[in-house]
Amino acid sequence: MRFELIDRVVEQADDRLVAVKNVTLAEEYLAEHFPSFPVLPGVLVLETMVQAGRRLVAEVAAESLGPNTPLILEQARNVRYSGMVRPGQALTVEVTLRSVENDAAGQPVAFELAGVGKVGDGSVCQGRFRLSALPHGS
To answer: 3-state DSSP call for residue 13?
Structure first.
């Protein structure tokens, strides 16, 4: 099962990606978060940034690790939430590649990224995270 949160990629360069998630009342998880005041859960705001990060590094990862090697969220640091995302709003996430960690053979195995989530001009979340290749046999 794939849980895609990104509706469209707006902009992409080698080290930066901007994507949009449109939040609607049709999304089941909003019925319970919260029933009288629905908001996109913070973990899904972070997951939207993580999915954007995977898209950003997908080509490099596929070339060196193989097309079906999953990239997992290994670490999230300095994640700060400063607002809410409500139904009818668009969450715009911007992720930037900060560094790439290579193995002894020079193949990329981990990616350090920074992300910012915004609604309009206001920031709702920001933080840094690390995506790593899932070790074979896991």
So the answer is: coil
Residues annotated as catalytic (active site), given as ranges: 33
Encoded tokens for 4 = 């895609």
Is the distance from CB of 22 to CB of 40 less than 8 angstroms?
no
**Residue range(s) defining the domain that contains residue 85:** 8-105+117-133
Structure tokens, 66: 């193989």
pLDDT per residue over 91-125, tens digit each? 999 999 999 999 998 889 999 999 999 999 999 99
Q: Is residue 80 part of a domain?
A: yes
Both ends of the chain: CA-CA distance in Å?
Answer: 18
Tell me the backbone φ, ψ of residue 36, rounded to 5 degrees. Answer: -100, -5
Q: Are 115 and 61 in contact (CB under 8 A)?
A: no
Which pLDDT tens digit goes with each residue over 27-68? 998 988 888 999 999 999 999 999 999 999 998 888 888 888
Chain center to CA of 98: 14
Q: Chain centroid to CA 112: how far?
A: 12
Q: What is the CATH number of the domain that holds 83?
A: 3.10.129.10
